[in-house]
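FAQ: What does the model actually see?

It sees only this:
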Amino acid sequence: DTYPPKTHPAPITDKSDIPPTPEIYSSLRFLSYPLPNDPDIKIQQGWYYTWLDKDGKRIEHKGIDFIKGTTDELETWKPFDVLAAADGWAWINPPSHIGNAVFIEHISNGQHIYTYYGHLEKMADMPPYLTSENKHPEGKPVKRGEKIGVAGASGAIDENGNPLIHLHFQVNIGDIPFDPYDLRRERDEYPDPNFTNGKTLGEHA
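And it is asked to produce this:
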């Protein structure tokens, strides 16, 4: 088996009755936020990290880190529910995961899109991506807005051993990482989850 998988179960055809969160999202958008509508949840890291490498170059994160608390003040970070961003089929702990993770496959207009939810404290009951016999079982059907876990610090501690409680959210179109905001920038250039800071989404968000 490969990652992302090359075989797919039949598409889910019944429409989810759970609206995207927050409600400001257009019903035409494929993904909704993977978290509750909570003003305390913020973006800690965007597509690029807020620090540079030893050569002074920006470092690609290729995902979005969400925290509940104050940015850069890890002692304030708290767990929060993690929700499926769209209907799909879910597994736990795919290859290359760090800490506990949920992996969901979605199909939209014939396109295979994958969402990854990393560093979870708790995960919902669903099959492992690979069994002990190295088999790839069928994923568990999940609905948009369904709770799939709780953000935590599994596989994420700082150099002093402090837990970094957050959600690493990643989107792949096929096997190519894609910024769901379509911005590819650092944290401060992203709209907050309730769109109160005046920042906007990219054209292909």
